[in-house]
Amino acid sequence: MLRIITQQADVKAELQRICDRTHDEQVLHKEATVREVLQAVKRQGDKAVLHYTAEFDNQTLKPEELRVTGSELDAAYQQVSKDLLQAIQLACRQIEAFHRQRVPKSWVHFGDDDVVLGKRYTPVDRAGLYVPGGRAAYPSTVLMNAIPAKIAGVPRVVMVTPPRAGKAINSAVLVAAQEAGVQEIYRVGGAQAIAALAYGTETIPKVDAIVGPGNIYVTLAKKLVYGTVGIDSLAGPSEVLIIADENANPVHVATDLLAQAEHDPMAAAILLTTDTALAKNVQVAVERQLVDHPRRIDTEKAIAHYGLIVLVESLEAAAELSNEFAPEHLELEIKDPWALVPHIRHAGAIFLGYSTPQAVGNFLAGPNHILPTSGAARYASALGVETFLKHSSIIQYSQTALQKVAGAIDALATAEGLPSHTDSVRRRIQQEE
Amino acid sequence: MLRIITQQADVKAELQRICDRTHDEQVLHKEATVREVLQAVKRQGDKAVLHYTAEFDNQTLKPEELRVTGSELDAAYQQVSKDLLQAIQLACRQIEAFHRQRVPKSWVHFGDDDVVLGKRYTPVDRAGLYVPGGRAAYPSTVLMNAIPAKIAGVPRVVMVTPPRAGKAINSAVLVAAQEAGVQEIYRVGGAQAIAALAYGTETIPKVDAIVGPGNIYVTLAKKLVYGTVGIDSLAGPSEVLIIADENANPVHVATDLLAQAEHDPMAAAILLTTDTALAKNVQVAVERQLVDHPRRIDTEKAIAHYGLIVLVESLEAAAELSNEFAPEHLELEIKDPWALVPHIRHAGAIFLGYSTPQAVGNFLAGPNHILPTSGAARYASALGVETFLKHSSIIQYSQTALQKVAGAIDALATAEGLPSHTDSVRRRIQQEE
């Protein structure tokens, strides 16, 4: 049963509990396992990768089986329906169109005395994309990972995803990868995949940035290798927070909550509403829709543990609670959603109005679905083209320009106790005199 | 003595050794200490902060002494020279002018069928700036941290820096903070400062993002709290790589190498040159300048362990070696530096020509001096306004627009086994029929 509480109750503590749902005591124990996997792969390369693939994924591979072959890639197209292929292609086009907007560009500025300043953007040399596998398959996550990397101009993009029974990779995943321009795919998942990408093995190349969501082992491995390589973020289980008014359709709101909960037994689904009738109707609709939900057990778990309806006094109060939670997905199922937007400070993605279910953003509206979770929207953003770009500052001074700032540099260098800093300027301008 | 090797020697291994200079065996031991500090501050707040300040910084403070007072802030202005104040103000203006360029702005795009897509940029609510202290004082680092935060519009910016003997904070640091608009300053450093900012204490507020360079304890603490808060990067000791041709002035090149080495006994200073005479002359000049260098012992250590001159066959070969090293600072002391820029893929900041010593960028050219180190320029960039901003994706669909993509969403949701995703769209468009 989806609980209903009022704002008088200790709402903030409840939201905090839900936000912190992955910070469990077991993490330290899992971290020890992950450290062991990282060390083994660093030292033994493919051998360790294959060992852990057998242990954790129950698939016994030879080194030459790690990479998905050209014939598998070709065959995948035969195995997906025409409808699915077209859907993947539509998603590709829309994701690409969105991500091509406002890509940072290199610039220089010419100042007085021949001073040139600027920023030069370049892509990482190699990117590693993690695509979760296991029970489900996520062709949409392939697109969300790969398209920004391609737009950034990353010369070598490699993908890793765990093998399923029979060593196979889901055909929709292989088709999505090819549609997004990724041909180099390795069947390896978990911490061993992150280790292989961070350190390189005989078969799998070392990359410069590792992106994409994964389970707790993948996330811990990404945190530990951060610094050796770049990472996009630390992903936790998915979450939605819906702000709804009396005009929202309770069946739609209930379905959106379940669309979040069905991802993961750890998913969170929260409704903040000003309307008591809506709260009760959503509660009933969730129960009803759960009855014959194909993923009932896991979905029910998420709803029971991390589902919540809060009755709030105003939409502004709802926005303030939402800001404290900083949700990955925020739906504004209210009459004038744009009026509330200025009150929203932290959210991964905002879905406006009664006709924008999160599903449309999850698959094909264009914006990225790899978003900050567990409160990370307070400081982080969606995966994007920028994730695969970095810039070099550009600085060029003339002797005249240097002369003009020499005194100031001297004062600062002296204050910081750096004599050669002063000398490096003084010696250059004295030459002129 | 600064060693000279040729490209025939195992240059790549040598550069790798220098790049990896902080990945020492002691890190794991230090990490245990840092974990203990984090846990203690999380549980005991100010009490633990004061305990570790006494233990590590030898300063016994009361809780009410943690925050720098208004009268201390005022008094600082009396203690800096007019020249230094003017230098700080010049640096402020130039850093602000550079950082105000090309700041990301919110946008929306109106598509067909009333689809609205966009990105909404917002600052973090609270930022914590770390400014190293200890033996030296870094007013320039205050500016490089604080100015981007202010431009981003961060409502609450707090600064932490370790107390020196007599509990005092360097007056130039306090003046720089005020010139950059930061008034809330706490005298705490090390891992205990990072813990206080990540978890909050009775006195020090919990922040959303922690930025700024620090020693190995600060860096380890930042890595461990990443995920609870955002961080800018993991800083290692500073480094310069200079590419110079036969026209470069050996005394200038030597001074620039020492200007790097004088920062830290772990700093790295590398010269790649096509000219044997220059190599030898730089070697001699470095020796000569070291003789009466006020920081001779530490600077000599850096030069001996992490200094290197490599004779290369061409400037392009130098660029390729530089790309492998991905230096924090890259100086192109060559006749046509702009011709080599397209060959440079990874560098934190590029200083072009014979008249652009790194010192000018370090203090006041405008670009940030908080830069990726230890090879991180392969995937990371300078601290910037973006470090304090994040965006929310904006998605609004109409029923008509939803209707058009319903089939595609159905295909993708089915492939991913997410029935409520399909329902969330179907139920909305059926209502219209």
From TrEMBL, chains A, B:
One of its GO terms (cellular component) is cytosol. The active site is at residues 328-329. It catalyses: L-histidinol + 2 NAD(+) + H2O = L-histidine + 2 NADH + 3 H(+). Pathway: Amino-acid biosynthesis; L-histidine biosynthesis; L-histidine from 5-phospho-alpha-D-ribose 1-diphosphate: step 9/9. SUPFAM superfamilies: ALDH-like (SSF53720). NAD(+) binds at residues 130, 192, 215. Keywords: Amino-acid biosynthesis, Histidine biosynthesis, Metal-binding, NAD, Oxidoreductase, Zinc. One of its GO terms (biological process) is L-histidine biosynthetic process. Pfam families: Histidinol_dh. Its EC number is 1.1.1.23. Belongs to the histidinol dehydrogenase family. This is Histidinol dehydrogenase. It comes from Dendronalium phyllosphericum CENA369.
